[in-house]
Amino acid sequence: MAESATGMIDVSIQPGFFSSFVDAFNFIFHQQEGGGGTLVGGPAKVLELTWAQVQVSGLALAGSLVIAVPIGAWFGHRGKGEFLAIGLGNAGRAVPEIAVIFLLAAVIGIGLRDVAIALAILGIPPILTNTFVGVRQVDPRAVEAGRGMGMSELAVLTRVELPLAVPTIMGGVRTAAINIVATATIASFVGYSTLGDFIINPQVYGTDGALAGAILVALLALAVELTLSGLQYLLTPRGLRLQHIGTGA
Amino acid sequence: MVINLRRRALFAVLAVSVVSVGATACGGGNSSSTTSGSNASIQSNPDNAKVTLTVGSKNFTEEYVLGEIYAQALEAAGYKVKKQLNLGSETVALKALKTGNISGYPEYTSTALQSFFSVKPQDIPPDAQGAYDMAKADLEKEGLTAFPPAPYSSANALGTLTSEAKKLGVTTISDLQGKSQDLTLAGPSECRERVDCLVGFEDDYGLQFKSFTPIDPALRYQVLDKGEAQLSILFTTDAQLFTDPDKYTLLTDDKHVLTPGYPMFITSQKVVDEAGPDFENTIVAVQKDLDINTIRELNARVDVDKQQPSAVAHQYLKAAGFVD
């Protein structure tokens, strides 16, 4: 045991700590013998499963957006249904993803299409709530100005309210996207292989594979967050950008 | 101690009577396949009363049933028995055994060899004696040991709906040659990288499938029932094979790709030395009537009829004549 000057145990010098990460990275870059008698790991297979996870997540997010943004925007614009919108958001956060995935597997089916549906359902609450709140909280003077200029209600929504609500909406989109990408890991249980394969099968991929899978899911979530932050910056109207530099939660 | 056993046995008999009356009333008339009382009743040896044995098990139905059978049998033999069923995966159970938290638990030869000793599936002997000898030798290097295995083996199986098998005209896995390219196979995601699963079907049988669908084993019958896959990886000891024997067909593994696992009771040499000869003798005797049909039926009583594993174990022991 390595002890530091204060007598506490220095975890980083424990023999297993760094070497597990080294083994995990080895798994990603070099094929190695799996527990099932074949060669596992290596860049090709890792990329294949990572891409599969990205695909189903993208599909699901698109589905969530198509449903949640129009509904949240319309109700936010009308100022009605606040209880439902917020309540749905809270309820959505409380639901355990694994339960939803298995329930839908039993009811709808398994495979890419059905996993995408299940994940889209998971993505709807944060986007719906944030769109509703974002549109509702737009400066009423801007809305009045738009109406005063003769804009139709739809134009007010699309040209005034939605652009000004972008930071809030994108906050919901980012939450949904990260939830979706992370949960897509368990698609391996219901008919669609993702990085979850590496994590749930230590007898074949080893603890190296399991750690590698976990690291990759985390990196994927980080990449999604960075990409959407960049997208948020691009979508935010210049006036708001100047006002709210650095924030956007 | 003796009075408690009698009262518990009486209660179990009453419970069994109530349940079996209820089961027949509901029309669940599956005939029992256990032999009727043809074995010698286990004799209680007072020397064993000073030994306490803790019987463990992993956390699925078959393990609960086996654990209960062994625990109740050892109790009948006069040991003080504690139970620690529901330990978790084999790594947890092995740890509990090594630290002395349990005296032993039922493990499968294939699981022990692959999980504990990293033996590749293709190197595991397919027969009971070979697998047991290899596992025992490896265990002995760690101060552990194993008793001879039960008569049945649990293995993955390539299963399909009987209607589908008839339509395709297949009874063995080799029969799928030339037909498998139109069929979808469902199995646990690890199957893709195992020589005793998909890789073996491709390499040893020369089969190509239309697609492979990774699923959690809990869905293995659902995918067949709903037509989401034509072939599914099932287990030979599944309860469904007892309750719906004509609905599903297991294709014969004529090239021996699917590694069978034989259940053996593993324990430590130290416990064996302390417990005396009745320890091994009781375990070996009581598992004699556990053939594949019996274990399927016992699994079915737990999974389908929702009976308690302890009650089901007692029914087995009583029906086979080991306890009264």
What's the helix and strand layout?
The complex is a heterodimer of chains A (249) and B (324).
Chain A: H1 15-29, E1 31-33, E2 39-41, H2 43-78, H3 82-94, H4 97-107, H5 112-136, H6 140-148, H7 153-183, H8 196-200, H9 202-235, H10 238-243
Antiparallel strand pairs in A: 1-2
Helix pairs in contact in A: 1-9, 2-5, 2-7, 3-5, 4-5, 5-7, 6-7, 7-9
Chain B: H1 2-25, E1 52-56, H2 61-76, E2 80-84, H3 90-98, E3 104-108, H4 109-116, H5 128-140, E4 144-146, E5 154-161, H6 162-168, E6 184-187, H7 198-203, E7 211-214, H8 222-225, E8 231-235, H9 240-243, E9 248-251, E10 260-261, E11 263-268, H10 269-275, H11 277-286, H12 292-303, H13 309-319
Parallel strand pairs in B: 1-2, 6-7, 6-8
Antiparallel strand pairs in B: 3-11, 4-11, 5-8, 5-9, 5-10
Helix pairs in contact in B: 1-13, 2-11, 2-13, 4-5
What is CATH's topology name of the largest domain in chain B?
D-Maltodextrin-Binding Protein, domain 2
Going by CATH, what is the homologous superfamily of chain A? MetI-like
Could you name the ranges of chain A where pLDDT drops below 50 across 5 or more consecutive residues? none
Strand and helix order of chain B: HEHEHEHHEEHEHEHEHEEEHHHH
Total helix count of chain A? 10
Trace the largest sheet of chain A across and list its strands: 1-2
CATH architecture of chain A: Orthogonal Bundle
Percent range of helical residues of chain B: 40-55%
Number-wise, the strands of chain A total 2
- Backbone shape of chain B: globular
Tell me the β content of chain B. Answer: 15-25%
**Biggest sheet statistics of chain B:** 6 strands, mixed
Low-pLDDT runs of chain B: 20-33
Radius of gyration computed on alpha carbons of chain A: 22 Å
Under CATH at level 1, the class of the largest domain in chain B stands as Alpha Beta
Euclidean distance between termini CA atoms of chain B: 16 Å
The average pLDDT score of chain B comes to 89
